[in-house]
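Here we describe the complex-level prediction in full. Unlike the single-chain runs in Section 2.1, the two entities below were treated as one system.
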Amino acid sequence: MTEYIDVDVRPILRAGGEPFSVIMAALDNLESGQGMRLYVTFKPVPLFAVMLNKGFAHSERPLEGGEWEVLFTPAGAPQERTPAMTNSSFDNWPEPAIQLDNRDLDPPEPMVRILAAADNLGPGETLSALLRREPVFLFPQLEKRGFRWLGGFAPDGATYQLTVRAPL
Amino acid sequence: MIGTSISRWSMTYFAMALAWLLAALVMMVAGIGYPAADLATPDTLVLVHMVCIGWLSLAMCGALFQFVPVLVAKPLFSEKWELPALALLSAGLVLLLAGFLSLGGRLPPALWLLPLGAVMLVGGFGLVVVDLGLTAWLRPAGPARFVLVGLASLCATAAFGAVFAFALAGCAGSAGEVILAEGIPLHAVAGLGGWLTLTAMGVSYRLLAMFMLSPDVDDQQSRWTLAAGAFAVAVTVAGGALAVGFASGLNVVLSISAILGLASAVLYGRDIAGLFRLRKRRHLELNMRMATLSFASLAGTGLLGIALVSIDAFPEQIGAFAFLAIFGWLSGLVLAKLYKIVAFLTWLETYGPVMGRAPTPRVQDLVAEGRATKWFVIYYAAVWIGTVTLLIAEPNSFRIAAVAMIVGVVGIAREIVRIRRLADVAGPQRLPIGTVMPHLLYANP
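The structure predicted for the assembly as a whole is:
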């Protein structure tokens, strides 16, 4: 049974961003035998060929609102990986400068702490945070401040992983 | 906009709703409508619709415009519809009430006001249903499914209501007359049981889990609660309509519906008990403590119903039963949650822009729970005493209880205004540089 790591790039796409480098970075972090469950706002046909070259078969499923869930499953022995592409408007996101575990804080404390920590990030730095819920009230605040973010539930469905990147 | 922004007009809905509640309570004190008059009199119709449309439905719509996007993590389908919907609902309600007053001879005869008001209400609720329905449909899981069933019940309620209004004005033909004569329980069950209760249940699952740090109720578990409630409404509406058509069997239909409704309430009690049991946050805020009184009122409503049926007194005492459901369960829950929702939204609106950049108060710094507690206690005590006075047919004692309800509601409303005005936030944290004072009646997202 293949274990899938969730990657949700819909926030980036909705913000008009380019998710390719993020997907490639996530791919580099996969362990042997792991697959990737990708959430996107369109059917990412060009990605299928790229992923096939990297040894991943794909199967896709439409969601509501024109969105797609794509499963990338390692097909046999993975081929040698090429370095992640860095030619997009997003450079590879660096390792988080700050890590927060906000899972057991009373709401809205998780949001307060993320905003406070985000304000201390240097240009282009990232922070990561663990949460219980999708922080729907946080996103507009991040957007107003020019931050980008990437988030999704971990496979257990109980922890939301959020990465926030400060504007360059 | 990604995520959920602050709903601009929810505060306006809440303010209008509280104004209607106070107006209805003043009528009760003045002895207009039930229990001073019969349940079926035009005066009671005025009172019931002030409470169910003016107070409960407007407050529920205001809350849903804010929280359905939270439930589905998607923006509202259209924020532009909120204010026109409020205008249509308010104007429609005023015309409907004027029509009832004219029906009862308190205004000159103008029965055409009833269908006109009904059409405007259908228009207003139509905007609400389409806007919220298209939003909730994007991720119809968990609590959002309760909202969808609630919205469907609202459509059924409004459809029956519109037929009644045309029938009362004498322009619905003989079919309309039959539906008017027999169909009022269907209208009431769909409205109170389907629209208001199922929606309140759905929203409460998420709010309680959020505020108490409990894991969400499992979808597999809550689906039985919803299924029982949805079946109760569906049996009432579809089976009831058939029974009215065939002129027989309505009591059987309503009995089946009552059993299903009771099952749904019991399952809901189990779900809520689970949320309390599994909570990570041991200390309960005032809104949660007061919500437990509302759950107790729901349980009390169920027990009262069983007791009244078993001693064959339900038809005579249906007013007391409905009073406890409307004011103990629904109104109590809405008041308790309004107290929290207004504080949270005001905090987010005011301090969101500077959060992390300047010291800001906590949400709890916006409220003065010690002072507010007594108003809630007065309110619930008055509702329970009021129910007893209705059961023992003491209309004058009931009016005293209604006065106490006004005292409680005015006290709670004053606390909510103080929250909105940041009146209890002390010192330099109140308005740091970069923040602006929120407006009382609408939000600046």
